[in-house]
Amino acid sequence: MGITVNLVTYLVGTMHLPSSTSSKIVSNFAGTTLLLCLLGGIIADSFLGKYWTIVVFYLIDALGVGALAISTGLPQLRLAPCNTSLPNKCEQANAFQMGVFYTALYATALGIGGIKSSVSGFGSEQFDDKDEKEKSQKTYFFNRIYSFINIGTLLAVTVLVFQKCLGSLIIHILKNVVAAVRKRNLKLPPSADLLFEDTPVGSRIRRTAQYRCLDKAAILVEEDHNTNESSSTTSPWRLFSDKNRGNKNVTIATLSISAFLLLPQFIIVGNGEGFMYSGQLNFFITQSPKGMKAMSTGLFQTTISFGYLASSLLITLVKRVTGGGDGHGWLTDHINNWRLDMFYALLAILSLINFGAYLLCASWYKPSTSEVDIALNEVVVVTGATGSDQNKE
C-alpha cells in the first residue's frame, strides 16, 4: 500500500505522465498483484507448501522493492523538472526509463502475490479444529488479520505518502490573514488581474467570489517592498498571493465544494468492504479442501484483481467515449473539467449489477457439513451407543 498510494504522485510529478495514465498504471499494478495470488496458491498447494512459498516470495518482493528504490534514485533514470513558466515543457519518461521502472514494479507484484495467497491460510492452519476453543479463535483470526491489513493501509496513506515539503498550510493561512488584516482599509481593485500574483500561469486556478476580504492580501502597494535589503524582496506577511493562485485564462469556474462531501460514501463503502473481506476470506479457506486452501485464497484475491483491471479498462473507455478535443469530458487531466458526477453514476449502476450477480450466486450455494463435523458426529454416536450397551450389561 505504501507503494500504491505514492505511485500516482511519483508518475505525475517525477515521470511527467498524465494523471489518467498514472491511474491506469496503478490499477494495473494492483490488479496484477492480486492476479498473481492464484499462481502463488498453486505453487503453495502443489509444490513448496505455504511456509516455503512465503519465504521464497518474500525474497522476490525484497528484490523488487530494492530495484524499485534504485530505479527511482539513480540520476540517469530521473527526469529534469518541468519548466512551469512555459506550456507543454514537461518531457515524459522514455521507453528505457519506464522499462526499468516496470521491471522493478512487477517483480514487487510477483512477490506480493505469492505472499498474499499463503499468509492467511498458513495462519489459519495454526488452529486445531478439533478443539472447540481454538475453532472459535480461528474465526477471530480472520478479523484480526484484516484489521492489521487496514492498519498497514492507514500508515501507508498517512505516514508514507510521498510529497515534497511545501511548508505548513497553517503558516500559509496565517500569512494570508495577517496580510489581509494589515490592508483591511484598502479597496479592492475593479479587476482581479490587478492583484499581485507570483505563481506560474500553469499552476494557478481561478479566483472565486468567496472571502473576497482575503484578496486584500494581494493588493500591491509601495510599502510592500522590503527596502532594508539590497534586493527588492517582498514579505509574505505583507503581500500574499496564495488565496486562490488567480488565472484570467481559465474559463471554467472552480467548484466551491469540498472533497469531504465524499466522506460519508467512503465510510459506507469501507464498512461494507470490512464485512465482505473477512467473511469471504473465512469462507474460501474453511469451505475448500485441505490441499486447495492457498489456491482458493488466490482465487478470492483474483476476483479483486479483475476489479482493478476492469477499472483500468473502464477509465480508457470512458475517456474515449466522453472525451472531446476541447479537453472536456468525464475524466480529463484538469479536475475542473471533469464530470465526476456522471462517472460516479456509472459506478453506481455497475455496483447494482454486481449486487444482483452476488444474489444469484448466493442462491446457488448450498452449505455442506465439513468432514471434521461429520467425523465428530460419528464419534459421538459410536461413543453413546457403546456407553448405553455397557450400562445394560
TrEMBL record:
InterPro entries for the chain: MFS_trans_sf (IPR036259), POT_fam (IPR000109)
Segments crossing the lipid bilayer: 25-44, 51-70, 145-174, 250-268, 298-318, 343-365
Lipid bilayer topology: Multi-pass membrane protein
Keyword Protease: no
Location within or outside the cell: Membrane
A GO term from the CC aspect: membrane
Residues forming coiled coils: none
Protein name per Swiss-Prot or TrEMBL: Uncharacterized protein
Family, per entry: Belongs to the major facilitator superfamily. Proton-dependent oligopeptide transporter (POT/PTR) (TC 2.A.17) family.
A Gene Ontology molecular function term of the record: transmembrane transporter activity
Keywords from the named record: Membrane, Transmembrane, Transmembrane helix
